[in-house]
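User: Please fill in residues for this 173-position structure.
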């Protein structure tokens, strides 16, 4: 049986990469962080792409690379950058070919860890808390269109990984 990729989505700082790595190790799968793949393939860091080429160019790269991995690989655990799933073409490819797991946090829980998230994330620079909250809420509504959604407030990465594995075993995805 061909095993679908498991794709982790969610806002910046919800633990997609940490959980993705743990989940892949537990399932004996390869792990791919799409931001790392974009950096490797472009030869630039994400802040450099934003600064030198602009967000549009980043989104284009993100779209091409993510759709390629969704369509042409199987059996991996893949974490997406927080904005990737806002692109309808990425969302469609993920939902068509992969199991999509959304890691959610409540706004207060996210806010409590927000200061440590700013470095290396262009979208969190020079934005008011209110503007980030709007983005957070707008995106949360889109993340809800997924295969499995988990509220992670108060859970450790280990707890989140356990919950995903339980869901995965029960659902047979
Ligand atoms: C972004 C999230 C980042 C990265 C880029 C844009 C976003 O990934 O893709 O800075 O639009 O939310 P993480 O969610 O891994 O921080």
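Assistant: Residues filled in for all 173 positions:
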């Amino acid at each position: 049986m061909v095993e679908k990729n498991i794709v982790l989505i969610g806002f910046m700082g919800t633990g997609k990469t940490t959980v993705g790595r743990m989940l892949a190790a537990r399932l004996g799968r390869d792990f791919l962080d799409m931001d790392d793949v974009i950096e490797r393939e472009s030869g630039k860091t994400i802040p450099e792409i934003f600064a030198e080429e602009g967000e549009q160019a980043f989104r284009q790269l993100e779209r091409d690379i993510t759709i390629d991995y969704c369509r042409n690989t199987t059996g991996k655990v893949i974490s997406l950058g927080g904005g990737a799933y806002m692109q309808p073409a990425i969302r469609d490819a993920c939902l068509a070919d992969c199991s999509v797991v959304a890691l959610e946090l409540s706004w207060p829980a996210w806010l409590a860890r927000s200061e440590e998230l700013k470095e290396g994330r262009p979208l969190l620079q020079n934005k008011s808390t209110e503007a980030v909250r709007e983005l957070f809420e707008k995106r949360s509504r889109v993340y809800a269109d997924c295969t499995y959604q988990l509220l992670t407030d108060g859970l450790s990465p280990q707890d989140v990984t356990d919950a995903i594995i339980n869901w995965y075993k029960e659902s047979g995805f």
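For context: The helical segments are 16-27, 34-42, 46-53, 55-72, 88-97, 107-112, 129-143, 157-171.
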